[in-house]
Every structure is written in C-alpha cells, then in structure tokens.
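Late entry, evening session. Most of the bench is empty. Finally got around to the prediction I had been postponing all week. Sequence below, unchanged from the version circulated by S.P.
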Amino acid sequence: MQIRSNEFKERSVFAIHDANLQTALGRARYGFVGKRALQVAELPEFEQLREEAKSLKNHVLDNLDHYLERYEQAVTAAGGRVHWARDAAEAREIILGICKRVGARTVTKGKSMVSEEIDLNDALIDNGMEVVETDLGEYIIQLAHEPPSHIIAPAVHKTKDQVSDLFEAAHGGPRKTQIPELVDEARRVLRDKYFRADVGITGGNFLVAETGSSIIVTNEGNGDLTQTLAKVHIVTSGIERVVPTLDDATLFLRLLARSATGQETETYTTISTGPRRADDLDGPEEYHVVLVDNGRSKMLAGRFRDMLRCIRCGACMNHCPVYGAVGGHAYGWVYPGPMGSVLTPLIKGLDAAYDLPNACTLNGRCQSVCPVKIPLPELLRELRHLQHQQNITPVMQKRALNVWRWVATRPKLYHAIEQVAARALSALSRRGRIRRLPLAGGWTDSRDLPAPPGRTFLELWQGKRGQK
C-alpha cells in the first residue's frame, strides 16, 4: 500500500465536509467511549491491571530474544513452523511461497493488521488467488475497495445505507436495509468461502512462549472458521506480541476488550497450538507463524521502545479529538490515530509521514486511556523534535517557531503581546465567537473560533486571587 500520509491536511478537509463520514464517526465515538467508561468503573482493579501490564510488557521487551526463541521451540514441538521476516517484502514472499506450494486458489483471512501492514492481499491477488476477508468490517471495506479506517472497527466510517448499497451491488437480490439482515447476508455469502479455502490467514493478538500457541479474539467467530476449516493455517504477527505464559495472556485479555469495545470480554477467545493431531475432529494440516520485524527491532533499541507495548486495542483513537473529527483514512496508512501517528513515521520514515506527529493537540487523552500506559504525547513530541533536527520541518514553520521562541524567552514582551491579542480578539467577536480571522483560515473556514474574554489567563488568575 502506497503511503499517503503527506496528504493528511487535504484528506482531513475532505473528511470534515463528508456528511456520511461525520454521521458514522459521531455514532461510533460515543459508543466506544461510553462503554469503556462503564467497564472501567465496574472493575476497581483496572488501574492496577494497567500497571501490571506495563511492567510485564517491559519485561518481555527486555528479554524479547529469549521469549521469541522459547516460542519458536514450542511451536516446533507442537508440529508447526515459525518463519522470520525482516521486512514487509520478505513476509509477503514467505506467505506466497507457502500458498504456491500447496496450490492455493482461495485464501480466507481473519482480521490481521500485520497483513495490512505488509500489503498482503494485493500480492496474493496478483498471483491469481481469490482473497476473502471474513471479518464483517474487513469484508465491507474489501467490497468498497478501501483500506480499514480503524484497527478494531475497519468499516466504522460506513453508514448502514452505504453498506446496503455495497451488498446490493455485490450480491444482487433485494436490497437489505436492517443490520440483522445485512449480517445474515454476509454470513450466507462467506459460509461457502470457508469450506472452499485452501489457506486460512489470521493475526495473532498474543503469542504464548510457554505453549507455542497463538491467541485471537473476535466477536463473530470468523477467526475460528478461518483457521480450522482450511488445510493450512498461517498466523501473521509482529515480533512484539509474544507473552511468557497463558496466565500472562489473561492479564492482557482483561484489558483488551474493555479498552477496545467496552466489553468485559470478546465473544470468542481462541487458542491455537500447532496443526491438527490424529485424534482432533478438525483443524489444519499445516500450521505456520510468520513473525514480522519491519522496523520493530530498531524501535526496540531506540527511544521509541514504549510503542512496542501496544496491544492494538484502539482506545487511543476512540478518545482522540483529531481522529474523531477526520476518521482513519486521513492518516494515509493502516495505523491511524495517535498510535499510527507514532508508528507510521517510524516504519515508513519521518519525511514520508511528516504531518502525522504534528496532527495532535497533545491533550493527553490517549495516554490516560492506554491499557499499557504508552506515553503517546511524549513520543509525538520526540518525533517533532527529530523532524526539526533532520531539517524536515518546512522553512516558514521553522521561522515562525524561532520568532515564537524569541518572544517567549522575554516574559514582559510575551505578556504584553498576549494582552493586546486578547483584547483585539475579544473586540472582533460576535456573541463570543469569531467567524473569520486573518491568517487563521485553516480554523475559521470550517468552524467558529471561541473568542477570549478580553483578558489573559494570568490577568484572570491574578484577579481571582485578589478577590479571595
């Protein structure tokens, strides 16, 4: 997938004026946030679990080579095979090699962000294979020929009417208008694909070093059908997803669903260990795990190591005001929101994703809800600093920052300018808002600017203290 993150501003403007997108985002935003809040309130030990998860993840990252070797040994002992991929191209070649060897014609896929990251679907299709996404959200966007806009709800940007249009065009027959009807129609269409599949590909929410197991969590059961009915099961995962034991995995499972969808637990939690055994009723004949590095080792050795704690719950984007306004496609790659604004520049390059670290208000909500306490605002500030060091920052922006720094280091001048600006903006306001403002069209073209009260914060604070 060609990265288009440098089009963030243009795509954001389009997104803000897309009525269907704004309707869909509005419904999703309050659902995710509200449900998470209820689950957290009902679990008194939630903060303790976050701290334990952070500590355990840090321990794994400190000993990642050890746990990956243990995992490979356990997978091999269970009859499976682990493949190591340095980058996206190598991962694609490994998976293509497996599919070609078994003569695969139909490949079903459970939800896997790593497969999106390595641009797997196009590679399989270009080699003559039918690729079928079985997660309902992924299936919808596959019909729309679009990338996912959210890591746990890929079609969150689609309204019910848009999905109805897609299904009518793809499946024929009478148009379905109710959600249960649409779900039943997708289930009917996909059922045949599961039984025809030669290869099933899933992600891996967690990889267990103790047993060589892969764990996936879903709400639809599509992952189970994908990995048990095909002759070959391939797991795609980043190297950072390994955990020491099954007990350790349960710690993260308690945090994942609550943070992601506001559920106590997902409907299906499935543990797979190796290929089908002689006395198994079903299961694949071959079991492969493709462990993808793709820049993760570089992160592990550097100042962005904390990002490797991410368990891909999506809580940061659910609570992000920027994501909530523009959706996921504006970010230009597979990982949107705050976590994507860190990951994309690190994987694809600071210059290729210049806008993303700067598309943040640094309000800190993402860090406050992250189940493994990743300091996302700090990482975004660090990326901005690196961009400045590498002379990627546009010249006019650097000049403006230098002017601001010169003024900010002179407190008397700074406060004097603040006072003038506060009074001038207050005078320009109508009913507490400013409709148009020179040099601020990026804001006032799409919304009103709340006007200041005519005095600076320092003046208001001093006045309040004087009253007391």
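Two things to note before I forget:
The chain has 23 helices and twelve strands.
Residues 19-41 form the longest helix (23 residues).
Will write this up properly tomorrow.
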